[in-house]
């Protein structure tokens, strides 16, 4: 028997949409927690869910299944039952009666004089085109009802969407080995006990917590795809419902969207905006949006008017207005454990515009690895500690802060990145500005900066 999409999800063909959603979440969790040797398993699962979770596509698919299994009726050749023979006799009698009536009518028509056109001639029985009544297409009513449902979903208010998805939004906190908060972001529940967030939120964390509603859970990294900057967290005990995952292919510039996350640790903050652009990058399509985000929004959800997850909020450009970006939700299905090759093409911010205190110092044409050598006094605000950084030409550096001294190594990669290695921790910072007297380093999502002046 041919394997159907219902078989892939493990549900009956009469299953409700809620049963289909729950089956998809369960099977997705199984595939992510226990990888299979079938490379097409995840793709088939998503195809089954996308097809069967929407009324219009499901009705079309069900119709195709019915067409494939229509029985072929064969005439009985021998061994007919008596009732069948009686039916044949009655049928022959009816044919004879109809034939006799038809002959009488034809003879009567032939014997009547033809009416002239001026007298209102009737159309000839031979030339008249008889139109058979059109049978209603049963699938048209199903399609119409599905379209009506889609239309109803697309007109839901922001309040409705928040009510649907707010139970599936997490605040994710990464804690370092010393018990201090290392970073904070957001996350979205995509399956039972599974939260998706940005890898830069939880990179090199000692422990991770996920707060959903009023409950806080311990979390561990299940799949880390640094190339796509998406990490899947395993959160045992989390029973929050999973969101419905949509596709960037259905988005259009100008479409309204909603971002929900925990900017600056403010749980369940919702902002409204539009898709301001869809930008093609080597890995796929980035969503640029005007929905307001802030540091801490990274890893949160971007939702369309149907309440479907269409993007994972990833970065903000602090030097521009309403320049916020989300990685498409489609990438969740492409995740696999892989390190970053620094090719995730999140649009870079415009060049740093030095303020009045730095404009008096002209840029010097020297390599970044030579310019960075020396002592700098740096202000990091809430994300980085304030202190003195000393970069030596042999690749060693020392950071002197109020309560501790850190040391390690650094390396300048090209003209844009500095890689730091401190004991068992490594991280990257972006060079936003570098002159003989000024150094500005930023996190890779441009959410917080370390601004330094040469001592």
Q: H/E element string? A: HHHHHHHEEEHEEEEEEEEEHEEEEEEEE
Strands, total number: 20
Q: Could you estimate the helical fraction of the residues in percent?
A: 10-25%
Total of helices = 9
The structure class reads alpha+beta
> What topology, given as strand order, has the largest sheet?
13-14-15-16-17-18-19-20
Shape summary: elongated
What percent strand?
25-35%
Q: How many angstroms separate the termini?
A: 77 Å
What is the class of the largest domain in the CATH system? Answer: Mainly Beta
Q: What's the CATH topology label of the largest domain?
A: Thrombin, subunit H
Global mean pLDDT = 76
Number of domains: 3
Largest sheet entry:
8 strands, antiparallel, barrel
CATH architecture of the largest domain: Beta Barrel
């Amino acid at each position: 028997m041919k394997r159907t999409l219902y078989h892939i999800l493990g549900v009956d063909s009469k299953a409700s949409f809620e049963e289909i959603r729950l089956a998809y979440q369960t099977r997705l969790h199984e595939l992510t927690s226990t990888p299979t040797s079938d490379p097409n398993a995840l793709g088939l699962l998503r195809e089954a869910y996308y097809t069967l979770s929407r009324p219009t596509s499901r009705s079309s698919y069900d119709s195709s299944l019915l067409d494939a299994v229509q029985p072929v009726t064969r005439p009985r050749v021998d061994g007919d039952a008596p009732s069948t023979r009686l039916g044949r006799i009655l049928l022959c009698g009816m044919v004879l009666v109809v034939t006799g009536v038809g002959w009488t009518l034809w003879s009567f028509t032939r014997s009547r004089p033809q009416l002239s056109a001026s007298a209102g001639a009737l159309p000839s029985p031979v030339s008249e085109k008889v139109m058979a009544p059109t049978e209603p297409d049963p699938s048209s009513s199903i399609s119409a009802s599905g379209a009506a449902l889609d239309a109803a979903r697309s007109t839901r208010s922001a309040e409705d969407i928040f009510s649907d998805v707010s139970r599936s939004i997490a605040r994710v906190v990464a804690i370092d080995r010393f018990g201090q908060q290392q970073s904070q972001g957001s996350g979205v529940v995509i399956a039972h006990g599974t939260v998706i967030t940005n890898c830069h939120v939880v990179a090199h964390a000692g422990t991770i917590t996920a707060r959903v509603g009023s409950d806080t859970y311990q979390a561990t990294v299940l799949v880390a795809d640094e190339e796509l900057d998406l990490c899947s967290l395993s959160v045992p005990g989390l029973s929050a419902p999973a969101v419905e995952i949509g596709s960037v292919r259905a988005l259009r510039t100008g479409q309204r969207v909603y971002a929900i996350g925990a900017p600056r640790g403010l749980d369940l903050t919702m902002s409204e905006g539009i898709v301001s652009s869809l930008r093609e990058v080597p890995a796929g399509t980035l969503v640029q949006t005007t929905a307001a985000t802030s540091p801490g929004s990274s890893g949160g959800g971007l939702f369309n008017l149907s309440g479907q997850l269409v993007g994972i909020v990833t970065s903000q450009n602090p030097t521009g207005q309403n320049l916020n970006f989300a990685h498409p939700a489609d990438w969740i299905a492409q995740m696999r454990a892989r390190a970053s090759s620094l090719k995730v093409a999140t649009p870079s911010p415009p060049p740093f515009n030095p303020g009045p205190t730095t404009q008096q110092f002209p840029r010097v044409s020297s390599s970044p690895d030579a310019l960075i050598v020396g002592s700098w006094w740096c202000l990091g605000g809430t994300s980085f500690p304030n202190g003195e950084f000393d970069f030596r030409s042999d690749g060693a550096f020392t950071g002197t802060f109020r309560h501790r001294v850190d040391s390690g190594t650094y390396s300048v990669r090209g003209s844009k990145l500095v890689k730091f290695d401190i004991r068992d921790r490594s991280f990257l910072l972006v060079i936003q500005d570098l002159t003989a007297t000024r150094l500005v380093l930023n996190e890779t999502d441009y959410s917080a900066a370390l601004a330094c002046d040469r001592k």
